[in-house]
TrEMBL record:
Lineage of origin: Eukaryota, Viridiplantae, Streptophyta, Embryophyta, Tracheophyta
Record keyword Kinase present: yes
Name of the molecule in the record: non-specific serine/threonine protein kinase
Cofactor(s) listed: Mn(2+)
GO biological process entries: signal transduction
Length: 250
């Protein structure tokens, strides 16, 4: 049967949800995946507007502009995901067999991973946008501490810098900070530790496109507030120029 619950973040909801006439949840989710893929590619929402009425009208129409760097294959793929008619919208089977989606795609069986970084050379793993969606929970820092009382905080940003340059920059900034040191490092990741506040910061870098990478920072603290002081107030602002700005490419 059709669903009738009005739910979801407004900028991501499918037009049939807005119509309040009932909708197929699976087809609505495909629309939302299209929004996520567009954001990962462009860096901004396709139908967003400060005026909610205008935004809903944009969603109903399904008309969005693509960045100039969008390939014809990706433009066609996203357009099929964001088809305003759920009956003609691309299906899961069609997604799996789409040429853009299949490019570089390999089925991966999830295995337990020891997050602890080792000083070894590893080639960067390349992901398409749907790979990123599939592991959106990020890396697991639970192995760093036995005590489960303390929460892990994660955040991501996109950068046009090379992974090695990002890591070198982090090392340079850490060298200027008191009581923070590099514990371990590899080609696509670095682990930091604050000696006084029992804070661990693990940064992982994955290739998104030929020009862009996704940088994910996970933080776990034993001293309340240490993450805000060390990451948000000190280290993160010093890395702000590494964040990719899509507007500069327009």
């Amino acid at each position: 049967g059709l669903l009738h619950t009005f739910c979801g973040t407004p900028a991501y909801v499918a037009p049939e949800i807005l119509s309040k006439k009932g909708y197929d949840g699976a087809k609505a989710d495909i629309w939302s995946c299209g929004i996520v893929l567009y954001v990962l590619h462009a860096g901004y929402l396709p139908f967003n507007d400060a005026n909610m009425t205008v935004m809903y009208r944009n969603i109903y129409r399904g008309e969005c502009k693509f960045p100039k760097w969008t390939s014809p294959e990706l433009r066609r793929f996203i357009s099929r995901l964001l088809d305003t008619n759920p009956e003609t919208r691309i299906t899961i089977d069609e997604i799996i067999n789409d040429p853009w989606f299949k490019n570089g795609y390999k089925e991966v069986k999830v295995q337990p991973v020891d997050f602890d970084l080792k000083e070894e050379t590893q080639s960067n793993v390349r992901f398409n946008a749907f790979d990123l969606i599939s592991f959106s929970t990020g890396f697991d820092l639970s192995g760093l501490f036995n005590d489960t009382e303390f929460s892990v905080q994660r955040e991501r940003f996109v950068s046009a810098e090379k992974p090695w340059r990002i890591i070198e920059r982090i090392k340079e900034e850490v060298a200027k900070m008191e009581n923070v040191e590099v514990i371990s490092m590899r080609e696509s990741g670095i682990r930091l530790e604050h000696l006084g506040n029992n804070l661990v910061i693990a940064i992982d870098i994955n290739q998104l496109t030929e020009e862009l990478v996704v940088v994910e920072a996970g933080r776990r603290e034993l001293t309340a507030g240490s993450s805000d002081e060390i990451w948000n107030e000190k280290l993160k602002p010093r890395l702000s120029d590494l964040v990719y700005n899509s507007e500069s490419e327009l």
